[in-house]
Amino acid sequence: MEHVRWLAQPTLQQPTMIAAFTGWNDAGDAASNSVRHLIEAWQAQPLAEIDPEEFTDFATVRPHVRLSAGMTRSIVWPTVGAWSASTPGGDVILVLGPEPSLRWRLFAEQIMAIANRHGTTMLFTLGALLADVPHSRPVQLMGTATDQSMIDRFELQRSRYEGPTGIVGVLHDAAGRAGLPSASLWAAVPAYASQVPSPKAALALVERTCEMLGCPASTARLVEEAGEYDARVSAFVGDDDELIGYVARLESLADNGELDDDEDDDDGSSLADDTPFTSEELMAEVERFLRDQGNSGS
């Protein structure tokens, strides 16, 4: 824990750790905003932070300059933080910050050290990907795990993914080696609205996370923002005749359930470009998304 700076020492009872990172696995800012919302909704308190010096390429993820009321300048460094909260469903540790650029194994050790210090019993990571799904329909979610007890308990799928990964994959590997059960939740964000933050996907991740853990959280703000998101995306779709037809096809396929459950390749090659996904197909799309991200060098 040489790179962990402790901010508090609460007494936590078998907490669940929930983590999300900005960057590679955070389409539409959905994953990071879902954890940010939980921190606020559960009034989580700062627990620890990880010194970014060893793990961050500051030329890629730049620090910010902040001016105080007295016009004093200070630097705000891009730091991964941990917060703790006690909810009706149990204690939680929430981890949020930018995906590290360097020394991932050492970084994962710091996260696992935080988990071990407080007797964490489960790890959940949240992610979001771009996919051919309509913004005007419910968000499609997928959950994966490798631990059979987690799969059975939360009705998840077994992860079969092979290919490029992000810090989320490294964390799951570290958790597995430490004997810590872990699972990953993914939300599909419309590819044609890739530049628009998606509170609708964040809401879906928050609701599913709370359902799995039995930890309720107020979602009124996200519900309102999700409605505004639908209206905003509908407005710019309405200005493009090609997008109108494309989204209409997605909506029709989603409404009619015109999906082929039998086609499922790990690389997503069996998916039509404009077809919404079954849970199996969404898993394949997650895998294809990860491979494409890795091959693009992003």
Write the layout of secondary structure elements.
Elements: E1 4-6, E2 16-22, H1 30-41, E3 45-50, E4 64-67, E5 73-76, E6 80-87, E7 90-98, H2 104-117, E8 122-131, E9 141-145, H3 148-154, E10 157-158, H4 167-177, E11 182-190, H5 199-213, H6 220-237, H7 241-256, H8 279-296
Parallel strand pairs: 2-7, 2-8, 8-11, 9-10
Antiparallel strand pairs: 1-3, 3-6, 4-5, 6-7, 9-11
Summarize the structure.
This protein has 298 residues and is α/β, with parallel strands linked by helices.
What structural category characterises the helix and strand content? Answer: alpha/beta
Largest sheet: 9 strands, mixed
**Number of helical segments with 4 or more residues:** 8
The residue-averaged pLDDT reads 87
CA-based shape = globular
Count of DSSP E strands?
Answer: 11
Radius of gyration computed on alpha carbons: 19 Å
Helix content: 25-40%
Detail the poorly predicted runs. Answer: 259-277
Q: How are the strands of the largest sheet arranged?
A: 1-3-6-7-2-8-11-9-10
Helix-strand string? EEHEEEEEHEEHEHEHHHH
Instruction: Give the strand content.
Output: 15-25%
- The span between the termini is 29 Å
Structural write-up:
- There is one protein chain.
- This protein is of the alpha/beta class.
- The chain has helices at 30-41, 104-117, 148-154, 167-177, 199-213, 220-237, 241-256, 279-296; strands at 4-6, 16-22, 45-50, 64-67, 73-76, 80-87, 90-98, 122-131, 141-145, 157-158, 182-190.
- The chain has eight helices and eleven strands.
- It has a nine-stranded mixed sheet, with helices on both faces. A two-stranded antiparallel sheet has the order 4-5.
- Strand 9, helix 3 and strand 10 (157-158) form a beta-alpha-beta unit.
- Helix 2 packs across helix 4 and helix 5 (199-213) packs antiparallel against helix 6.
- The model is unreliable at 259-277 (pLDDT under 50).
